[in-house]
Amino acid sequence: MSMVKNSLGRLVPTEVNGRSVRPFMGAHADAGGGMRYGGSIPAAARYGNKLLADLDAAIDACEIRDGMVISFHHHLRNGDYLVNLVMDKLAARGLKDLVLAPSALFPTHGRLAEYIESEVISHIEGSMNGPIGRACSLGKMKKSAILRSHGGRYRAIQDGDLHIDVAFIAAPCADPHGNANGVNGPSACGPLGFALADSLFADKVVVVTDHLVDFPCHPWSIEGGNVDFVVRIDSIGDPNQIVSGTTQITRSPTRLLIAEYAARFVKESGIMTDPHFSFQAGAGGVSLAFVKYMSDLMREAGVAADFVRGGSTKYMVGMLENGLTRYILDGQSFDLDGVRSLRDNPCHIETNPFVSYDYHTKGCFAQLLKVSVLGATEIDLDYNVNVNTHSDGWLLHGIGGFTDAADAEVTMITAPLVRSRLPIVLDSVTTVTAPGEMIDVVVTEHGIAINPRRQDLLDRLKGSTLPLKTIEELRDIAARMSGVPEKPQFTDRVVAVIEFRDGTIIDAVRELVPPE
Amino acid sequence: MSMVKNSLGRLVPTEVNGRSVRPFMGAHADAGGGMRYGGSIPAAARYGNKLLADLDAAIDACEIRDGMVISFHHHLRNGDYLVNLVMDKLAARGLKDLVLAPSALFPTHGRLAEYIESEVISHIEGSMNGPIGRACSLGKMKKSAILRSHGGRYRAIQDGDLHIDVAFIAAPCADPHGNANGVNGPSACGPLGFALADSLFADKVVVVTDHLVDFPCHPWSIEGGNVDFVVRIDSIGDPNQIVSGTTQITRSPTRLLIAEYAARFVKESGIMTDPHFSFQAGAGGVSLAFVKYMSDLMREAGVAADFVRGGSTKYMVGMLENGLTRYILDGQSFDLDGVRSLRDNPCHIETNPFVSYDYHTKGCFAQLLKVSVLGATEIDLDYNVNVNTHSDGWLLHGIGGFTDAADAEVTMITAPLVRSRLPIVLDSVTTVTAPGEMIDVVVTEHGIAINPRRQDLLDRLKGSTLPLKTIEELRDIAARMSGVPEKPQFTDRVVAVIEFRDGTIIDAVRELVPPE
Predict the structure, then answer these.
(1) How many CB atoms lie within 10 A of CB B275?
(2) Cβ–Cβ of B225/A364 closer than 8 Å?
(3) pTM score
(4) What percent of chain A shows pLDDT beyond 90?
């Protein structure tokens, strides 16, 4: 495997699973060029009754063979049944070397690790969590895993870097033509945007629903004109598990303090009262607390955001219903209030990674966003951020929308300075997910560091009572609290690459030598 | 120019303007294959402020050169200002040999005939009406015009047969990112679906609006991620002319009788009370009357349609509001009631030619439709239909959605048997727009002919009191009423081709030798 240093000095391969790749050259260096993948041309007359009896009939109809790329979306989150259902059937058929291309996996999919061991799955292109990530770290995948952000996944599919043979789309509501949405039916999960690229570009598209309605199913987040087959099964997911585990505001005083600092930072920077305020925050306990603090500050100041970006939660829905934002632009629902609001409130708008995150567009929402509040496992002195591996070397997380959302005007990392007795700020991150040039502020309970590239923010915060520090000071405080952890031991083998949103390789993850 | 006979026996070219084309082989013979046009890959970082000062700045930014393909949509109908505004500026710049690719033209665009004479415009790919069609008939275009149906236009763009250099999209409402819709603002015209393919596949996309709103403009029928530039001008159209001229039910007893026969045919065939009834009718006086009669029959029988397909009119809106249909699936608004309903009623749904009409999809709405009611200029004994030329040889009409909507389960032509002293049913049509195999019923005031291919309909109508006749009988009645008109004289030169929805050539239009 030929390796090259990218612009961050990381040694990355020039070829991944036989495909040539370019090294990362800067967050905005890629200038596009070339042609998107068009997809094959079907003929409408070949499509009559698309309804098939069951999943087996769909697998037969798709003529799945060894080595094919099979994709899924993750809107049903930890409640998803479909990935396991389909992969069990493909394994039972004796298929080998499949490439799994989900938009994300969850703990409920942990048993896929067995299919990696048994080579039913050769590798994963998408995100990896928990046991799947551990299997990858231990070198169990035959080929290199490829981790992509949500926007990067859309880009890879549209550009033809990731060619999907068969997409299985779990659909809470669908009609026999294949029109589908996520807002109606017993398994309603909110948006279906993560499946959009799959529907547009996969050779075969199977919509699987437990709530079949008469044509036309509307809204049609997935359009029947892109769908080959429709299958009804008893249940596509467990509605109680569909929502995120973390839907309560943290009670940890440390995390509440971090969230409060972050909200105050936004206010004191003046961004909150700029015209066209907007922000994005996720579903973790800190993020939820940030939304609440931010709401309080906005209410006091009498300002409303033009929009807030989900994942949506009841706290964001509260902002919409109380006039603190004109719109929610929602890529995924993290709780049932989000699902209900998306279904019922015309100002709660479904989005997808094309409009929100895709770098190979004529602009996307991420770059229109004022403030993005994101988490991390490590941050280094160059402000490079790691969200994939832990300091002990295990690959345990996908990228999610991190690298995409980091394109906001002000990107803030919120994290406790020490977590599980490991420092979060350190000299150099184990793996670079996003380059420091995209990261503007690091907020911890022990202080807030502003990236020196952002002199404008340093100027705006002059005289603030917030505990401003340098990143080196944060590193030192963390080191004093936890000591400097031992470095993990890796072999030379690249088990996964971290693909930047433009398709370049920002870092490689190597096989871990597990500690004794 | 090499010519070949297609499956209807029409002599058609094998090459049009240097591009190889296939002869028509049957309505459903095309099996797809090959790849769609992907479009070029942009980079989001290259897109910041898209707002330009005026149209000239946009023309500069698009670097328009001689020979480029320039496109427009026609949702503003006869009220459109933009086509003339832009073409005047391109002509004033001395540009030559431009290809005009509108989804349709209207009488207000008649002065473009001058630009054809002066070779600013080399030819038109799209539809042609009135003076433009006359210029084409007289051989004034340097190259062959290409007429396509709405679905055929989408197909040609997605497949790369029609590559658009610059698309100008008149947008009644837009934001600075380029998100746009047709339902808000002083020039609201309803859907913007005819511009969808242009936005997705053109090299440069310019959104031109007279109603600029803060981001996010929603609904976003046109997505900002596909838009290069946004321009605000004083007015994109005359709201009083945006709606169709024909929005009143005909008072002609002949036409009322035709509409009544058509509605009774639908009822007596049993289709109306089949599960999942649906129909499509246009905006002409007969069509409006058909909708009214159909509504009466449905109300009496206590049945509701699953959906009706627009162009929407106040009569269709009445059906929705009175529970006679669950949905309107609307491709264009023909009156302001249609615009209002689309904006306010969640069961009035905007569609576009991809979902509705495109043959190179995995199925489209046209083939899900039960009944389609369409007009024609000529029908022959093989049930072939002409909607483009008149019996005197002049090319005066575009295809509209004719060939696409003719894919319904039952396609009915409604027409007076004689019009302007010319018979409508005759031995052979001047030009074939759609093959007889797609046409099931011809309804005239003197009788109704069922295509012998439809034995099922002949069986269902047995014993009906409707005046059933053979097509030959209708031809004879017409001939007795009007005489057989003299055939027009043509040269051998092909001035236009009629492209079928699958991209094959169904007929050629030749240069007319105008009568003395």
Answers:
(1) 7
(2) yes
(3) 0.97
(4) 92
